[in-house]
Amino acid sequence: MWHAMWLQRIDTKIATLQEQDAEQEQGRKNRPQEPDWIVELGIGNGRPPTEVHVGGCYAAGKRRRPVPRNEARRLLTSGGRACTHCKPDTQLRATDDTAPLPLVLHGTSV
Q1: 96 by DSSP, 3-state: which?
Q2: Beta strand 49-54 pairing with 81-82
Q3: Model pTM above 0.85
Q4: Contact 53, 59 (CB under 8 A)
Q5: What burial letters (b/e) apply to 36-61, b meaning 16+ CB within 10 Å?
Q6: Residues of the chain scoring pLDDT < 70
Q7: CA 42 to CA 51: how far, in whole Å?
Q8: For residue 63, what is the DSSP state?
Q9: How far apart are CA 7 and CA 90, in angstroms?
């Protein structure tokens, strides 16, 4: 009798854990896809954008919204601040560092 009681407890616990795992898996499948680019929003009238991040950046604040690639690039090229942790400006090639350097010969530029 004692063993049958413990076996029932163990079977009940296993069923509960399997149900929890199934619920967690369903939650992972139903979770919205992470955006590629996000913009952090400021406080105040109109909530202006303050910083551009790569989607999933741990340094992004709570006030944010997803943006498409072209808007993130536009914000960065128009003087918006890029996150120093995820560096969206280098991934979007929105910096002037990608421009070729001028060729200098004997003190004159060509």
Answers
A1: helix
A2: parallel
A3: no
A4: yes
A5: bbbbbbeeeeeeebbbbbbbebeebe
A6: 94-110
A7: 9
A8: S
A9: 59
Residue 72 identity (one-letter amino acid): A
How far is residue 107's CA from residue 110's CA, in Å, rounded to a whole number? 10
SS3 category, 97: helix
Q: Measured between alpha carbons, how far is 77 from 23 in angstroms, rounded to an integer?
A: 44
Pairing of strands 37-41, 49-54: antiparallel
What do you get for the CA distance between the two ends of the chain, in Å? 95
For 5-23, write each residue's pLDDT tens digit.
999 999 999 999 999 999 9
Which of 57, 62, 59, 61 lies closest to 34, judged by CA?
Answer: 57
